[in-house]
Amino acid sequence: LWQTELSRGGFPKIHRNNTHASATIACDGELLYAVFHHHNQLHAAALKRDGAIAWRRMLGEFHPKRYEYGYGPSPVLYRNLVLIGAEYDGDSHVSALDRRTGNTVWRVARQSFVSYSTPSIQTIGGRDLMTMTGDDKLMCYDPATGKELWAHGLGTVKTGDGGQAGASGNDGGDGPRSTPAMSGGRVYTFSAKLVL
Description:
By secondary structure, this protein is an all-beta fold. 0% of the residues lie in helices and 43% in strands. It contains no helices and 16 strands. The strands form four sheets. Strands 1-2-3-4 form a four-stranded antiparallel sheet, with no helix packed on it. Strand 13 (155-158) and strand 14 (164-167) form a beta hairpin. The model is unreliable at 165-173 (pLDDT under 50).
């Protein structure tokens, strides 16, 4: 139906099992939201249903040196926001952009640690929470403001509202990097070696 060019060249070195299109596009029925890594930068864009560009933003430098595997997290829609994680051995952060304008609503610095975790939204105890893994931790934020609510390293922790969160043990620096999932009021994540 249509084809829109958002980037040309500047592709980073990636893992042989990865692609330059690992992040899944998000859609709210009106706009398509994409995140891509090129020219050592992370970019986000919104496209209309006819392929026209609604907005595009450069989110910052993104040039992993320890693990040159490429970018993996997908954009996540929450209310009027697009949530985007960007973690590597550099200026790591998670950002919330306004879905209509692409303007930054909030941005929170994260530990400089390689992670491929997509922000995950759960409702626990009637409260919306955004969880992410990284730096051998499972961390929880208020998705509307970016305020950190809690962080936990190894084992299991009560979330304060009847829920529990669990993270794998340290397995030689290959701690949790996956996208957290929720079931039965608990939040789970896997390590790089698939240890729950």
